[in-house]
Amino acid sequence: MNHIYDLTNAQLSKPSIVTIGVFDGVHRGHAHLIRQLVQEAHSTDRLPVILTFFPHPDIVLRGLQGRYYLTTPEERAVQLIKLGVDTVVTHPFNETTRHIRAADFVDQLVKHLQLNALWVGADFAMGYKREGNVDFLRQQGATKGFSVHTVELVQTENDHESISSTRIRERLEAGEVEEVGGLLGRAFSVSGEVVRGDQRGRTIGFPTANIAVWEEQVLPANGVYAGWATLEGERLMAVTNIGVRPTFAGQNVTVEAHLLDFNRDIYGKTLAVSFDKRLRPEKKFNGIQELMAQIVLDAQAARDYLNAETV
Asked: What pLDDT, on the 0 to 100 scale, is given for residue 311?
């Protein structure tokens, strides 16, 4: 995988078609654009290249805190490469980047990426105070040897609303993971190291893997979800709980996955879990026995759903 950090570290071997954006989540709208770009690049012996940013410009410009990202920079690069992109450049978005003039940034694209064509949305703009709009870029291209191609945003079939990372965040925060899956083109997932929790699940016969998810990644609404766990290439059915465990007077939000038909020590390993269906919201139970009875029901509901999903 050709994932480069910082534009100035890129030295491409031949001309490229470049598109620029955050691409957080790499949703269906992104994929629609990228597949077209890849096809055009390959048919004309050019390199398909994505230039993206980290941190997210929203975080730098608006001072946002807490969970905001749909994907880590590394996961985003993996998804982009899967779509056929040759090179992903993750450029730092900092005070220097936010104040760079558009013409100067274009010069860097030409120098480091051998920019031959730039693909952007009709409302795209870059550079200080967004001075580098499409008209400006076309003028730059006429003198610096690249073309500018505009693309339309993808809309959903049912409500004709554009697919966006903002919309996906809103649906996740509402727990609507099935709709999110439709917007992404795959189930939303998180990953992290399996760490030791209070091990209470093991004592009641339902061991869980406590996943240390990146603290800046968005989580679905508190509740119980059916999905798939991936462990070193092995795919397993999972029931994942997100929440504070109110039955035990918990306070911190945790992500804990109970892997069906599985009982191995996986502390320290990386586990990914997807959220295919929300089974129920988080609930406080009247004691351990009531909780255990519900976990049995959750596990069966997850098994039924995931088995049906694979038919």
From this structure: 59
